[in-house]
From TrEMBL:
Residues 31-50 bind DNA. Keywords: DNA-binding, Repressor, Transcription, Transcription regulation. PANTHER family: HTH-TYPE TRANSCRIPTIONAL REGULATOR PKSA, HTH-TYPE TRANSCRIPTIONAL REGULATOR RUTR. GO terms for molecular function: DNA-binding transcription factor activity; transcription cis-regulatory region binding. This is AcrR family transcriptional regulator. InterPro entries: BetI_C, Homeodomain-like_sf, HTH-type_TetR-like_transc_reg, HTH_TetR, Tet_transcr_reg_TetR-rel_C_sf. Gene3D superfamilies: Tetracycline Repressor, domain 2. It holds the Pfam family TetR_C_6.
Length: 202
């Protein structure tokens, strides 16, 4: 890293250090000095971009959502819609070491959002965007005849998000009990049941 690195590069460097530090130590035990040490820079340099720990943490949660949005943008949009839904929701699952670390940090930030209005607003906006996107996809599936007309797409979108969040949480807690291949299998089975019409009878 050169002395004259641009601001975006520095922020990315600090964000990566923040992710690693919070994943290892948790939010409560993470200080600016820890992040600076992990990034290999001075505390003064970190404070040049983030005046307080709160500023840094709020940037961190926005960084995570930015990473997820980028993965969603890279999803191949090819029919059938069922496959699109699976591929989009897969981007939220901890299917590799980097995403597992991201999930641990996200869970820490989620807890912090209970008392931090700015973090809460970021989380709510991201959740709303995901829900709206799924509603649009499921509505498109209904128009294409892939999904039964009687299905409540808004309710099913919310349920699918909760299911994926639950899979991710249990993976973090139980480890091998929810391995990557099992996470994928569970997601596909859930979406298959939805598209095969079982949701319409509930």
């Amino acid at each position: 890293m050169t002395r004259h690195a641009d601001a975006d590069t520095r922020r990315a460097q600090i964000a990566d250090a923040l992710m690693s530090t919070v994943a290892e130590r948790g939010l409560a035990r993470t200080a600016l000095a820890d992040v600076a040490a992990t990034a290999g820079v001075s505390v003064g340099l970190v404070q040049r971009y983030f005046r307080t720990k709160g500023d840094l943490l709020r940037f961190g949660v926005e960084w995570i959502y930015g990473q997820v949005r980028e993965r969603v943008r890279q999803v191949e949009i090819t029919l059938p819609v069922r496959g699109i839904v699976v591929r989009i929701m897969e981007t939220f699952l901890p299917l590799d070491d980097e995403r597992e670390k991201e999930l641990k940090v996200w869970l820490s930030f989620l807890q912090a959002s209970l008392t931090d209005p700015e973090m809460a607003a970021t989380h709510k906006a991201a959740s709303r965007d995901l829900h709206d996107g799924l509603v649009e996809a499921l509505s498109g599936a209904q128009r294409a005849g892939e999904l039964a007309d009687g299905i409540d797409v808004a309710g099913e979108a919310a349920a699918l998000i909760a299911f994926v969040d639950g899979l991710s949480l249990h993976h973090v807690v139980t480890g091998a009990g929810y391995a990557a291949d099992e996470l994928r299998t569970a997601l596909v089975r859930y979406v298959d049941r939805l598209f095969d019409g079982e949701a319409a009878s509930r």
